[in-house]
Amino acid sequence: MIDLDMPAARGCDVLIAGAGLAGLVAALGFARAGFDVVCCGADERAGRGRTVALLDRSVSYLKSLGLWAPLGAQAAPMRALRLIDDTDALFRRARSSSMHRKSGSTRSDGISRTI
User: 7-12: long-range contacts at Cβ-Cβ below 8 A with a sequence spacing of 24 or more?
Assistant: First the structure.
């Protein structure tokens, strides 16, 4: 068992909490920039059916680290994106005087939704 009252035996410049895609890429980027990095988290070798959508800036960053070549061969372009907001959390709009009201489409807070 680890004694949490004892100081750590090792220090580092950057601690990355998470060993998934973002954590590993961040750890590699900091390490290549000359920082002493510790990356901790559960091993995620199995993707568990997840798909990762990488936009242009993410792909550019992976290219700058020399990681895109082996990954790009397994990538496919995103052909469609569909968002379903059943909670109103994604497309909630702030109240403003420029909002308009339509009969039949007004929410309980008096703001109509046009998406």
Answer: 10/38, 11/36, 12/36, 12/37, 12/38
CB of 14 within 8 A of CB of 30? yes
Say whether 11 sits in a helix, a strand or coil. coil
Sign for the CA dihedral angle at 29, 31, 35, 36 comes to: positive
- The whole model's pTM is what? 0.58
Measured in whole angstroms, how far is the alpha carbon of residue 5 from the centre of its chain?
33
Tens-digit pLDDT string for the chain (115 aa): 667 777 777 789 999 999 888 899 999 999 999 999 999 988 766 666 667 788 899 999 999 999 999 888 888 888 887 777 778 777 766 444 444 444 444 445 444 444 4
